[in-house]
Each structure stands twice: as C-alpha cells, then as structure tokens.
UniProtKB/TrEMBL annotation:
Pfam (any one): Polysacc_lyase_14
InterPro entries: Polysacc_lyase_14
Taxonomic lineage of the native organism: Eukaryota, Fungi, Dikarya, Basidiomycota, Agaricomycotina
Signal peptide boundaries: 1-20
All copies of domain Polysaccharide lyase, residue ranges: 93-311
Organism: Hohenbuehelia grisea
Stated name of the protein: Polysaccharide lyase 14 domain-containing protein
Keywords: Signal
Amino acid sequence: MRLILVLILFAHFCPRPMTTLRSGTAGALVPIQEYRFGFTTSSISLENIEHLLLNDAALGVHKASAKTPHCVVKPPAPEDPQQCGPDLPELAWEAKYPKGSINPSAPIPGGFSFYLSGPTSFADHLLAGATEAVFSYRMMLSRDWEWVKGGKLPGVFGGAGELSYRCTGGRQNDRCRCFNIRPMWRENSLGEAYPYLPLTANNEEQLLSVPPVSKKNADYGFSVGRGSFNLAAAVGSWVTIAIRIKMNDIGQENGELQLWMDGVSAISVSGLTLRDSAESHIKGMHFQTFFGGHTDDWASPKDQFAWFADVTGVIVR
C-alpha cells in the first residue's frame, strides 16, 4: 500500500513547474535557479516551500544520539550589527561541546547526532526515486570559539535501506551501498567537504582533484577542497551552508556534489559514483556535529556552543 502511495506521489511530482528562487538569504538557503518543491523552518518567504516548526516530528528526525540532546533554544543575538531584522532565526538547535569532548559516543560526548528525512511528503518523494536535491541550514558559533584540529558539521546521506546509516566512522564494508557527505572545519577556520563515497578508482581521482588541497585519509573518508571556504565569519554571526547531491545513473559515473557557503559555490565535483543499484536513494540530512577526530588531541579546550537554524531541503528532480 505504501509503495502505491509513493508511486502516485512521484507521478504527481514529476510534472510540477520549476520554481525560481529569490536572492539574499533565501538564495543562500536554496542557491540554485530552479527546484520542484521543498520544506524549510525559516521564516523567509520561499515559493513552493512548506514552512515547518523546528520540531523533531515535523522534520522526520530519527536515530538521535541519547547522549547528546539537541534542544530548541532562542539563539543569542549575532555580533555583526548588519545581521538584524525579521530574517534572523528566532529558534535554533543548540549544540554543546563540553571541555574535553569529542564525538557523541566518546566518554565526554559533545555536539549532537541524528538523521533527518524531512516531512512525510518530502521523504516519500526521496523514497520514490528523486535523484537531485539541495539541503541547507544556517549556523552560528559562540563568540570565543577555538577551532583546535577540526570537527564535523551537518551534511547529507543516502544509500540502500539500513546500509545508508553505516557509511561513517571508518567503515569499509558495503561502502558501495551508501554515501555520507558532511562539511568539516579544520585549524584556523578552514572549511572542507568530508565525503564517504563508494570506493571506486574514479571517485578517488575526482575527489583528489579538487583544489586547493584534497587528500585521502587512511581508514576514513576524504578531505576534499580544504581551504575552499572559511568559517571565521560563523564566529558570533550566522552563515549559511548548502549542499547539492545528484545521484549517478546506474552503471555510469555522472553523479555530482556541490557545496556553497553564503550562496557562493566553494566545492563542485562531477563524474562521481554514489550508487551501484536503484535501491540506493537520497535519504536526507545527517545532522551531526562534534570535535574530532576520535582522539583527545581533537577535543574542545573549553565549553563551547553552536546554533543551527533555518533547516531547508528542496527536490530538484
């Protein structure tokens, strides 16, 4: 019965007219010229977008880490006096990184970790075979932020069934059946993409060709485009991160990955393989953040905070 409903929804979705986005903050949240429909928790007006509360049930939050809550709070006022007015987020998820904390499963857990599939109608379209989507959010770091060696930020994920949740943390098995792409900060506020993709020779070649610096990490993912964007502006002020994922056709190496910061394209990679079977789908957002790394030299040197708001997703096709 569910499969029939999904097919009906997908058939209804296909002929919808494209929507052209607005500029400014709206353009940073959805930095493409055309999309079909989507959702957002932002108060910013966007056409053909379902506006939702920052609420777990409404956004399809699941598999949340029990050790690291993601409380909804009123975020602090930004430090930048130019960031004012009705477009400012009124509510945000707060991530706390206690002194000495690294990932959410460590003895001192920090940040938070959960998955987000979007509202039911959106999730059903992903399941029905949507092949291209953009996910975004606004974020702000506490004013006395210290970067240390680096840490993870929320990104996107997908794959075949439950295997889609098993692509991070250095896992090597079934890597052809999942993908996970999260931004990452490094020392001195340098930004990069940190993808886990199927382990093909062509994926490695394409990822390592991204400037200014890209490298393969033993047993873990790839560091892609380190220094292609800078997160210093997020200290005490809101910035916008957006990620576009385009699935490859089965048997072809024509998948794509793109990342924007504040509406400016920082990383763009084509010629990728994200799946080898039609069972693999875009699943939504891996809303995870922490210091690390998996060792204590990555740990936060003091209690620090970050806020995440205006969670947005659109289906392109």
